[in-house]
Amino acid sequence: MKVTKRRKDINSKVDFKKEYSISEAVLKLKETSKAKFNESIDIAMKLGVDPRQADQLVRGTVALPHGTGKTVRVLVIAKPEKQEDARTAGADHVGFEDYLNKIKEGWADVDVIIAAPDTMSELGKLGKVLGPKGLMPNPKSGTVTNDLGKAVAEVKAGRIEFRVEKAGIVHACIGKASFEPNQLEDNIHTFINQVLKLKPATSKGQYVKSVTLSSTMGPGLAISRNELAHH
Hints:
Helix content: 25-40%
Largest sheet: 5 strands, mixed
Shape: globular
Order of helices and strands: HEHEEEHEHEHHHEEHEEH
Structural class: alpha/beta
Number of helices: 9
Radius of gyration: 19 Å
Strand content: 15-25%
């Protein structure tokens, strides 16, 4: 494998055996993220849970104080009398049967779908299409609700959904390399705290096995366990 000049430069600045504090890791990621685009900063938490057990499926939402820096495209599925609220709150697409038909035809040019409860019997039929794309609205994640305006505003402001994958890892984008260090730190602490709060009662042993921060093109930095103790 040929090591690029950029990668060499990064490798020279990063100690891969070291466990970083969150504030050190944030500075290090900002220093090493030199791609030509504004890289995303991602977190991965390896959890000591068995996602195959329904009661250990860690999933939830968190409102990041500084957002993710990404533009979130939102579709709201609602009957006509509720559509105005969603439009006012800034939803990119709002409709009912017209959008159900578009989705059936394969359209999925959105990041989040929010639905009014009285549309779920119809929208539920599209589970095979939306499920694999992670777009199926869910009451637990606040995307099936009567308060459509509030849900749209929260998602647009930086509320993200996360769920543990088969390997027990929870991934999320928690900002951009261009953010100020304290903004990234706030977002990271908020995310970690939310995952800690969701520890399943049936989970035995160590709940958080490791935490890694990385940028899109950059290295993964291991975060010290001490950082989890005092939040």
